[in-house]
Amino acid sequence: MDESEDIGIARPMGVPFGVVLSRRAALLGALAAPMAAQAQGLPRRGGPSSLTFAELPHQLAQEDAVAPGHRIQVVIRWGDPVLPGAPPFDPRNVTAAAQAMQFGYNNDYLALLPLRHGEAVGGHGLLWANHEYTNTNLMFPGMGSGAQARARVTAAQVAVEMAAHGGSVVEIAQGPEGWKPVEAPRLNRRVTADTPMEIRGPAAGHPWMRTGADPAGTRVLGMLNNCAGGVTPWGTVLTCEENINFYFGGEAPEDGQAAHRRRYGIGPNPPNGWHRHVPRFSLAQEPNEPNRFGWVVELDIRDPASTPVKRTALGRFKHEGATFSLARDGRVVIHMGDDERFEYVYRFVTARAHDPANPAASRDLLDEGTLSVARFEADGTMRWLPLVHGQGPLTEANGFHGQGDVLIQARRAADLLGATPMDRPEDVETNPVNGRTYVMLTNNDRRTAQQVNAANPRPANRHGHVVEITPEGGDHGVGTARWTIFLRAGRPGMDAGAEYHRAVSDSGWLSCPDNCAFDSKGRIWIATDGADTAAGIADGLYAADTAGPGRALTRCFYQAPAGAEVCGPWIAEGDRAIFLAIQHPGEVAGSSWDTPATRWPDFTDGVPPRPSVVVLTREDGGPIG
Predict the structure, then answer these.
(1) Above 90 in pLDDT, residue 419?
(2) Which of the 8 DSSP states describes residue 307?
(3) What is the pLDDT of residues 424-448, one digit of tens each?
(4) For residue 418, how many other CB atoms are within 10 A of its CB?
(5) Which tens digits make up the pLDDT trace of 339-378?
(6) CA-CA-CA-CA torsion for 447, 448, 451, 453, nearest 10 degrees?
(7) What does each C-alpha distance from 376 to 314, 419, 443 come to in angstroms?
(8) Quick check: 172 and 75 in contact, CB under 8 A?
(9) Which residue from 233, 291, 403, 528 has the fewest beta carbons nearer than 10 Å?
(10) CA 36, 555, 546: angle at the middle one, nearest 5?
């Protein structure tokens, strides 16, 4: 019996397979949970889940919390030293020079890699952290809140914010007091909005990629709004530029790109004021500069002198993440989401196979291959539609003169192909145990009843859902798959359409799935962004089985401090630690440096809330779960 066979839950017409639970799972959940709990030593109140931790009650507080029997440790915070000689953090006098040597702001994607590719991390590795964006109101005193702070930002403060973007490489080790940065690092690095980078692939050198500072269109300064990411089989990190429209403003010239800019949300009045102080962010002075952002960036974090590369073959959109699986013939498959309402799910398949015995030969593997976009059909099948110049509508007649045009305008190309508009596709990750791919769909409160489709079945979807994709024949390289909805978030009985395993507790439901990871048993760990504070819950980390009687029975493991989003997560070897990036603590309406919603993690007067990386471990040192 297929695990996603319908169990008869009421659902909109056309949604395949009953969405969440199998009849077998439901029966086991309803009838066999007490017996299974006794046989496996599981807590009775946890239902048939294989997870053994005592569930954390929902909370909304100034401090974070984790399930009983576990501990939280801060690994590194905004302003902590990264490079040798970095000055101590001075929250009242943050400078660009200091920030460029210190841990940046709003950490998002995390990866913990071994010092040498192919070895185990053990208790000593390299931590990569994205620094997505900055909160002007929480970074600088006396700025006020929200739009007021952004309107007041000075050139010196913009320089600080640019230095706080990008990413950090931090050598960390596990000792008696837990995971900490090492005292004499050899490989630490800061990447900022001013770090020189290369542009490669089919869009490199395109006329729309050329600027006054780079007439060849092959080099660019920095990366922006790096959200989630991934790692490659050859040991590099992929980091993804997302909301690039936040940074460019002013009046653009009449250059034939007006509709193109609108499709990416780029206009005269962005959320921040960088364009008023830095000429390359002014559309009037450098109208092509935005086209050089919105890409997947590849970095060799083991070489501090290496040049990051923007891989244009993977397309330009608001990238959330870029995670890999392998096709049966050894080609590398990268799954990606375009994080905006009504945008799309993509994948990229390399032209050549990866050779594990010669990882260096794969360094430019991402420059050649096929980018595709997903169409989810009402019968539970899906197809990958190639974004290839000359195929279908992607021709000169529609304004595409080459593959570079298709990639720079990937959203328009996907529109023409008839891809399925989704409810904010964020992290897209493949479970290494069952081989299925899971799409985090965070929410979409703008979808009307007339706009619902089988894969996005709820209008005004405030809480989001998770889609599960099974590739045809288990091969991620083929062009077809089957799909089902793994769960629909929200509070059961309160939010229309919320569906999980029937044994989910009042603390087990979640809202706004964002990122995910899988442990060694194939269980999914879901981090949220945008939790229902009106219901008294903060964003958090939830876990569930992806198969068996506990399928989709989510349980709360961690809750963030007030105003924070939970990013990452990264599960260490042996499931003995989970690293999380806690982003924008204290970010609530009306908050500021002077009046934050929380002062986490320092809780010291005069110290603002500091985005931080934390690690969760069991008190007895055993595997989490």
Answers:
(1) yes
(2) P
(3) 999 999 999 999 999 999 999 999 9
(4) 12
(5) 999 999 999 999 999 999 999 999 999 999 999 999 999 9
(6) 70
(7) 21, 8, 17
(8) yes
(9) 233
(10) 65
